[in-house]
Amino acid sequence: PPRLAGRGLVKHFGPTAALAGVDLEIGEGESLAITGPSGSGKSTLMHVLAGIQVPDAGVVTLRGRQVQGFSERQRSVLRRGRYGFVFQHGQLLSELTALENVAVAAMLDGEPRADAEHLARQWLARLGLAGCAQRRPGELTAGEAQRVAVARALVTHPDVVFADEPTGSLDHATGYEVMRLIVATTRDVEAALVVVTQDPRVAAWCDHSVELRDGRVVPAPAAAPVPDLA
Ligand code: ADP
Ligand code: ADP
């Protein structure tokens, strides 16, 4: 089965159909960009795929297992350990150091403190942030903070990484570097990657992309060449 799939996904907010019947799947270790104009349903689709919102109709499967069959408690465990999240604004805890921000994610996933800190150090180093471990978010550049958020998303070795406009608050060069790291590191750990983005350059980094319009998938444009990762 695919790593993650949605079939017949429908989600209404009052009279608004945020999702009007969406089918998609993401293969093992693949990346998918979700694009489309503001209000087209991108965030809702990501939230439904991630089990944060429950669809009115349709099913989401993770490795062939229906996520809706899970209790809220099981879904919460899933979000904590099997899924990693990167948001537009890193949403790091401002009172904690970069190291602690990453280590806390591993501890919530059940790692003892010493192991969590060891893993956090490894991930910070892997993202070029060894020198930032003891800094608080206020002492990091926007690009560094976003790379800490990537480390935090990956430290639990998730099955799927969800990134919502991960480069949205970064300048072009910094966004490019962050996106390169997200794609390379999720590939390294064989996580699938779902990226919500309005930026066609970001979408071009992904293996596949779907475009939403009024809660439906529109036929994708011809595949853009994938930039060389080397
Ligand atoms: P996008 O991420 O593409 O901007 P959204 O998924 O946020 O789109 O929204 C899709 C549609 O659903 C929009 O019309 C939005 O206003 C509506 N919507 C999303 N979430 C809610 C909500 N919690 N309550 C009411 N309407 C919502
Ligand atoms: P994005 O910039 O990612 O598209 P939005 O600004 O559309 O995000 O939505 C941010 C949050 O607000 C989401 O959780 C979405 O579900 C919710 N939301 C969006 N539209 C509405 C709405 N019309 N009423 C209430 N909540 C909404």
UniProtKB/TrEMBL annotation:
InterPro entries: AAA+_ATPase, ABC_transporter-like_ATP-bd, ABC_transpr_LolD-like, MacB-like_ATP-bd, P-loop_NTPase. One of its GO terms (molecular function) is ATP binding. The keyword Cell inner membrane does not apply. Keywords: ATP-binding, Nucleotide-binding, Transport. Residues 4-230 form the ABC transporter domain. CDD domains: ABC_MJ0796_LolCDE_FtsE. It holds the Pfam family ABC_tran. GO terms for cellular component: plasma membrane. The keyword Transport applies. It comes from the Bacteria. PANTHER family: ABC TRANSPORTER RELATED, IMPORT ATP-BINDING PROTEIN. This is ABC transporter related protein. It comes from Cellulomonas gilvus (strain ATCC 13127 / NRRL B-14078) (Cellvibrio gilvus).
